[in-house]
Amino acid sequence: MTSSQPLLLSSSRNPDPSPVEPPPPPLSTDSLSCFCPTNSPSSLFDDAQKNLSDAKDNDIVSVGDADSYQKHHDRTDSVLTSERFQSAESQFFQEFQFECPRKERRHLVSWGTMELQENSMSLEISGTSLVQDRVSKSQQVHRRSVQFEDHLSSEENPRLIYVNDPKKTNDKYDFTGNEIRTSKYTVVTFLPKNIFIQFHRVAYLYFLAIAALNQLPPLAVFGRTVSLFPLLFVLCVTAFKDGYEDWRRYRSDQNENNREALVLQSSQFKLKIWKKIQVGEVVKVSANETIPSDMVLLATSDPSGIAYIQTINLDGESNLKTRYARQETASTVFEGHTISGLIKCEQPNRNIYEFSANMEFNGQRFSLNQSNIILRGCQLKNTEWVIGVVVFAGQDTKAMLNSTASPSKKSRLESYMNRETLWLSVFLFIMCAVVALGMGLWLERYRVQLDTLPYYRKRYFTNGHDNGRTYKYHGIAMETFFSFLSSVIVFQIMIPISLYITMELVRLGQSYFMIEDKHMYDSSSDSKFQCRSLNINEDLGQIRYVFSDKTGTLTENKMEFRRASIYGKNYGSSSNITDDTMPEASISAGAAGRRWKLKSEIITDTELVKLLHLDLDGDERVAAHEFFLTLAACNTVIPILQQSSSSAISDLHEKVESVDYQGESPDEQALVAAASAYGYTLIERTSGHIVIDVNGEKLRLDVLGLHEFDSVRKRMSVVIRFPNNAVKVLVKGADTSMFSILAKQIDEVDHGANIKNATQSHLIEYSSQGLRTLVIATRDLTASEFEEWQHSYEEASTSLTERSTKLRQTAALIECNLNLLGATGIEDKLQDGVPETIESLRQAGIKVWVLTGDKQETAISIGLSCKLLTPVMQQIVINGNSEDECRRLLADAKSKSGVKSANCRNNDLNHKKGAENDNLEISDATRTSSVSQWHAGKVVGIISAPLALVIDGNSLVYILERDLEPELFDLAIACKVVLCCRVAPLQKAGIVDLIKSRTDDMTLAIGDGANDVSMIQMADVGVGICGQEGRQAVMASDFAMGQFRFLKRLLLVHGHWNYLRVGYLVLYNFYRNAVFVLMLFWYILYTAFSTTSALTDLSSVLYSILYTSIPTIIVGILDKDLSHKTLLQYPKLYEAGHRQESYNMYLFWITMLDTLWQSLVLFYMPVFIYKESTVDMWSMGSLWTITVVVLVNIHLAMDIQRWVLITHIATWGSIVITYICMVILDSIPILPNYRAIYHLVNSPTYWLTFILTIIIALLPRFIFKVIHQFYWPSDIQIAREAEILRNGQRGQNQIVSVLLSGKRTSILHGSP
């Protein structure tokens, strides 16, 4: 085949287009200068081409789309604002102008960045659209009216950069330097700033007030220094941790700022450290070096101006991306001329996928976009050197503007803990009031005896100089008030300050073991589990709803070309496919004695291969040629060639060149690889042309313009000039956006109508198989059409304001009246373990909702294959095109399914406490039909349960209004599964908020792409997948992992353990401090409300910090009620978190009652035994100190489920440490308790009192636990008994038969 063959020129279906006049050999016309092979605009190859397939989630939002990206990052916290809920009518007029001119138009609606259509496919059941009457069927849009003016002059505050003149640039404008700073503190600001941040915790302010009160002489219950110790300890520990982390950031900043780069100085490139680089300076970067700042490319080592960069440090993507230097600047640099010019660009912003600027250079003025800028942090690859001018430096670079952390989230259990802390504050106030009132009454009773009563006389009676001096007595009222404040100081640890630092340490330890869990390591991506937030570990054990993305999350996002529909004929069926190594697939190697070897094998269709190599000029042959030509040309993929020699299939030796394709979109890579397998190999790409090896002959095509994919158009197009100067536009996109812009058939009998119907039928077939679909079309451009488009394209591409909008309008000029070529089907396989994970989550009482941008049929097919949907489920499909229609469809669905609403909705807030089926508000009378799918609006019989709701983005536009949200909520919570198709990113966040705002259930969102960021940040727990779409989701998440299947272990194992541990940790800390405070309270009541203490100040302080804290931390990190095998085998055990078995109000009050009993025994047992003795109060204090420490540690030991060596050391070692400290303190002569313990330990009474006190105090708790576990065992206790017996090598059948009653059998058998 040669380039002169007719099929290379135009489609035979449009045989007589007005050809574009061939330009003169040296193309000098200014209007066409930017479209020639050497001077084509670098904007033609913007590298933000992601997610072109209509089956991909990002069909709804492209990472290259500025609008949608800004909504992700700048409006995360306002997803429920009024902009989110735009009316269909206003959006129609806003989006209408982007459609191609034609007589009959679709009705367009926009929600965020989501395009909706009035027309739906035959499978999409919807009622009569009420919007049709509002749309005029005769509207005309004149192409000439789509003109733009350059808004640069109207830009309020453009950023002006004088190239190679940093002095003029920075003198006129106050630009930041290139020094970066990620650390929070300096040496001067660390102490005040860190203390200020720490005191944002209200509890710290409480303890500061306590310490301040203790400094007042009338209130000095403890030593003034000792009273500061607990608060200072916590502040110092936190400050040390913050300081160390900030020092690491500072060290990293210094290393970064002191790196060196070549900067143009005095006409020579000299080394300069990064932090001294200024805006406007010209910088040279060599291969494999890191870019020091955001720079506009001026020249590269490649004469065509191409540079390859790797952005893994910026967005995590390892694929190489292309950037281009303008030929106007590249040629000047190569010729050695002085570099000067002016760049007018936008102000610094966070959008790493868009850049708008104009450049004035050597009398020329041209546009710049994201393909002309290289960002700080990227690495230069496969390019010897590049030269660029700095436009953004330091903190203004896009990398630094995007370095903000994800929103801080607060644990649900911690909020409950604050509720109980309030109750403890009430108890504290009551105890202090009782002491103060008692003191007042006691003083009033003994008013006249105050001078003579021991320990409370008004005057000193001594022989010294104080003889006769009065005490500081302030009267009964003030003494009562001071007694209240003194009591607050004595009872201060009732609000446990140690709990905060303990929880931080425990969460840190839990995170370490989650990170090091080898079962959550993904070898394919070499990624460990990541804990990016330490505040919500325990929330993982209470998840009720999982909202999942599909592409890249449930699937691998590794695309394989499977099916093709060309000219109405289906290819790729199992009967015709063959491996591409077979001779039939290697015909392309024959002509030139060489063939291209792909990185991965592609399965080809023998019939299609034969068609492509037949010497026919028929329509089918031409369509097949243009089909694969479009696949090879309409993309931004970069070919990388490697030549080698190998044995040919025949006896001859041939040159074998391997080609590897680098691109940001796996869809594009799969399509280009498929074209290569069929003989259309993309082998070269520059800024102005591409070269395709067509069956052994090179075909050079000039690229005149490229309209990248965006979420409004949902298609991509490229304008190509062929060797004979014919100009074509090649288009590919989602079927929903492509069929509306096809050429209208004059005669319905025309074969084109049959092709369209056949293609639609094939698309439905592909979608039902779970394939991702894409429609291919093309058209010839006449000279007038090309001239009009060219003029608009030049103006739109040089505009600094609303450039993307103007480019969309320009694309509408040529993306119309297209000739349909066919469609593609790409397979995105499920990840390993996805069906098993979803089934386990369902058994655990967790509802899995999938929110995807896929077609409805594709999403349902994937849902069935991953066991999200089951054959027995009743599918309710909601496809509405107006608010009234959606209201009717929802009401119809609720009535047919028997779902209760209104009053029941308030009661449904408690549905999480029951089993999963408790959520289904369906009467028994409705369970009679066996219909598998029901479309709202159809007249069918009453449907059966369980229910699965399938709803599209069109409907959500209208439903996510305030008056329809309750209706959707009622229906959704009655379903086991909800599948949302064609949803925009903000719609995903809206669905999460629908559940989060109307229930108390915990939500988890999991995704892998930038379009999942809003959903991840909205949910209570956000999980990012380290997938193929960069790291935006990971950077915005709380946890990150490599595979969806790890979610099973994360929730069922680590989530269960963490919730159990932290729940018990909080209750135990409340108990541990309360029993100590109540013991002091009884002592004060016993000593005439004097607020004195029998315990030394140091003993009171060390109680929470040293004596009892270590066992708490160790148990909080290591304790396990069940093994991971048991938890994975019986997912229903996870429902213990739904029932809040580890932490609830009932347990809190039971714990407080037990605490009250233990404190009474702890105080009065020794008092009763020693009431007739002469033991002093310090000796009694020593006895109480050691007894309470042993008591709380044995209390803890009774609840430990898993004993290991370190647990024994921590628990019993704390008692030993307490004894050692007591001996040391009692050996200091200056302390009042000097040698107190020595007198006690020699007495048998001491040991008898010690043992009896502990036994009597813990006896009720022991009896309660035994009775409760024997007669009312929990699921976890039953499973633990079974696990113990299993470890004792008894059979599983015996375990079940011995341990389980009928109502418990389902627990260990895993039935839902």
From TrEMBL:
Residues 1034-1274 form the P-type ATPase C-terminal domain. Residues 1-14 have a biased composition (Polar residues). ATP binds at D549, K550, T551, E668, F709, K732, R772, T852, G853, D854, R982, K988, N1011, D1012. It comes from the Eukaryota. The keyword Disulfide bond does not apply. The active site is at D549 (4-aspartylphosphate intermediate). Its EC number is 7.6.2.1. InterPro entries: ATPase_P-typ_cyto_dom_N (IPR023299), ATPase_P-typ_P_site (IPR018303), ATPase_P-typ_TM_dom_sf (IPR023298), ATPase_P-typ_transduc_dom_A_sf (IPR008250), HAD-like_sf (IPR036412), HAD_sf (IPR023214), P-type_ATPase_IV (IPR006539), P-type_ATPase_N (IPR032631). It is a multi-pass membrane protein. GO terms for cellular component: plasma membrane. NCBIfam families: ATPase-Plipid (TIGR01652), ATPase_P-type (TIGR01494). Belongs to the cation transport ATPase (P-type) (TC 3.A.3) family. Type IV subfamily. This is Phospholipid-transporting ATPase.
